[in-house]
């Protein structure tokens, strides 16, 4: 399965792990890369550039394959501009394969990354932003539909429309995210103009993801309508699992709560504790609508190979219908 994305990143299959705070660890990254995709280490798991560097070294002890990094440039109480500078500097010094950026543009880092041979892609939710990404010199753009977990753009455009709109509007490779979970969605994304897919929620339900087993049970049990968009009223829209905490946040928003009142409920420590203890009610667990299609826990290798085999079969079967 060759695309411009597999050639750009030197990977076997056009399947990429997206950023996941606390979950995209060296161990999960290596498992995905060893399976032929592009694994991910989320830089914001770490408090300093040197902690982050140690994580890259750990991943490289576990795989000789390409590895990716997520750096999310959103308002943060943990990170200063200098720490973000260090994250990008470490990526360049360690010559990682690729960086997935979300949030504000990372234009000031592009020259340094490109001189080190590091490819940079940026996640966007609108054609106007994709055009900027191309103009600024990024290597690829990620079209993020409203279905995605985390922080989709508040334009609220679904993948089915957003992906082909961006693919027809830019010349750089386009990666699809939002609702990607299996071979059917991989085949659909390729048919709509993507040259790769990025998943996060589905990779939580893998044996290499370090979460409490109750989290897996919850993902399998929940349906596609059981996520919600929080913090839209304060300009920090996020899609998270419907639970006691997110319903509390929505109630506070309806009553006019400001961001300062919501921040204690959004603290990263809540999510870290939840992933480790299996408490699914008291943290903002950022997952996408694709939970409705999560049916089992597999290894990363099983997941990726099944996706590729199923996508091939679907594309070949559909092609045969027109012959």
Task: Give a verbal description of the structure.
This protein has helices at 4-9, 26-34, 49-62, 81-94, 107-115, 127-136, 159-167, 183-191, 201-204, 213-221, 244-254, 259-266, 268-277, 300-321; strands at residues 15-17, 39-42, 67-73, 98-103, 119-124, 140-144, 174-177, 196-199, 227-230, 238-241. It has 323 residues and is an alpha/beta fold. The protein has two domains: 4-210 and 296-317, Aldolase class I (TIM Barrel, Alpha-Beta Barrel), CATH 3.20.20; 213-290, no CATH class. The strands form two sheets. An eight-stranded parallel sheet has the order 1-8-7-6-5-4-3-2. The chain has a two-stranded antiparallel ribbon with strand order 9-10. α4 links the parallel β3 and β4 (98-103). The radius of gyration is 18 Å and the shape is globular. The two termini are 22 Å apart.
Write a compact overview of the structure shown.
The protein is an alpha/beta fold. Helices cover 45% and strands 15% of the residues.
> How widely separated are the two ends?
22 Å
How do the helices and strands follow one another from N- to C-terminus? HEHEHEHEHEHEHEHEHHEEHHHH
Radius of gyration: 18 Å
Amount of helix: 40-55%
Q: Which segments are poorly predicted (pLDDT under 50) over 5 or more consecutive residues?
A: none
CATH architecture of the largest domain: Alpha-Beta Barrel
CATH topology of the largest domain: TIM Barrel
The tally of strands reads: 10
Please tell me what the overall shape is: globular
Structural class, please?
alpha/beta
As a percent range, the share of strand residues is: 5-15%
Report the top-level CATH class of the largest domain: Alpha Beta
Tally the structural domains.
2
Q: Can you say what the CATH homologous superfamily of the largest domain is?
A: Aldolase class I
């Amino acid at each position: 399965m060759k695309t411009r994305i597999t050639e750009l990143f030197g990977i076997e299959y056009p399947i990429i792990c997206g950023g996941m705070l606390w979950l995209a660890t060296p161990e999960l990254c290596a498992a995905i890369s060893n399976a032929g995709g592009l694994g991910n280490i989320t830089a914001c798991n770490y408090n300093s550039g040197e902690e982050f560097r140690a994580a890259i070294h750990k991943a490289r002890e576990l795989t000789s394959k390409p590895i990716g990094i997520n750096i999310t440039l959103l308002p943060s109480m943990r990170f200063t501009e200098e720490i973000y500078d260090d994250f990008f500097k470490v990526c360049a010094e360690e010559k990682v394969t690729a960086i997935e950026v979300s949030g504000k543009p990372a234009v000031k880092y592009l020259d340094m990354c490109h001189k080190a041979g590091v490819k940079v892609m940026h996640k966007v939710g609108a054609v106007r932003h994709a055009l900027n990404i191309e103009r600024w010199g990024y290597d690829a753009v990620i079209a993020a539909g409203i279905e995605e977990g985390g922080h989709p753009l508040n334009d609220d455009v679904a993948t089915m429309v957003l992906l082909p709109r961006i693919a027809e509007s830019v010349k750089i490779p386009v990666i699809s995210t939002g609702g990607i979970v299996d071979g059917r969605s991989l085949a659909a994304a390729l048919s709509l103009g993507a040259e790769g897919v990025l998943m996060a929620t589905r990779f939580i339900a893998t044996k290499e993801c370090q979460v409490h087993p109750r989290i897996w049970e919850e993902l399998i049990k929940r349906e596609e309508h059981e996520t919600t968009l929080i913090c839209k009223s304060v300009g920090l829209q996020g899609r998270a699992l419907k639970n006691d905490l997110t319903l509390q946040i929505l109630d506070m928003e309806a009553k006019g709560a400001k961001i300062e009142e919501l921040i204690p409920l959004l603290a990263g420590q809540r999510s870290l504790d939840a992933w480790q203890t299996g408490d699914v009610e008291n943290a903002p667990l950022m997952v996408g609508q694709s939970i409705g299609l999560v049916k089992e826990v597999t290894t990363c290798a099983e997941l990726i190979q099944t996706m590729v085999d199923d996508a091939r079969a679907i594309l070949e079967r559909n092609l045969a219908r027109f012959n």
